Amino acid sequence: MQIRDMMVPIGDGIELEVRRIQHAEPKGPVLVFLHESLGSIALWRKFPEKLAKATGCDALIYNRQGYGHSPDEELPRPHDYLETAGEQWLPRLLDKLEIRDVVLIGHSDGGSIALVTAGTMGGRVKALATMAAHIYADHLTLAGIEEMAVRYRETDIRDRLARYHGNRTDDLFNAWQTVWRDEGFQAAMDFSRWLAAIECPAIIIQGENDEYGVPEQVTDIVAGIGPKARGVLLEDAGHSPHLEKQDQVVELLYDFLRSESVLKNCN
């Protein structure tokens, strides 16, 4: 596998930071990784490489605006920031890179964005996997954000995040907690039209001990997509199952993609 980091112009003077993992002979669509609200390319750690190696698929990992070397985002975040990221910015990036067929893999905010993109891009999305995606703010979401805000002030969480986000750390943290606590944002969240438009097989994953979401997030997403979707609650996992149970999630996603005939030449 070859790994390359680059900046990709997508119009309007915007360049997004991306990492590409490429095989000489890829065995399926491109795996596209969408990070969480406090995440980044680096914070996926080795998960994209392991899944790309297991599946034989190329991979694209990117930083949204406001993250890494990508340009600043609009602050405060508008209520439709998830929809805009999924409906406009990601399709533009894929078009610029001339990537047609994809498997979307999103974590937390990235999972919610992946739902929008899957509902927007139709048949180009061959499969969808989300981990800890949200389609509404539930009581665990709000309590988890409140607890994290306290930890941000009173522990070394800020310093740990700053290793990845540098002088943007406070802006990113405040953007995340402010918009999710905004009652206008909570009231405006409605993913129903995108869920209903998803055409591909989907696996909706959440840790049983996820501190930011109730299990009904999974069942409601599955119900909104329909029979093409399946839900998985992972034992002994929290908000980041792909890091906490990395090998298990790699195997789970490989088996899912193989069972849905997304991968080529796999026995």
Automatic annotation (TrEMBL):
Residues 31-251 form the AB hydrolase-1 domain. GO terms for molecular function: hydrolase activity. Transmembrane segments: none annotated. Keywords: Hydrolase. Signal peptide: none annotated. It comes from the Bacteria. This is Alpha/beta hydrolase.
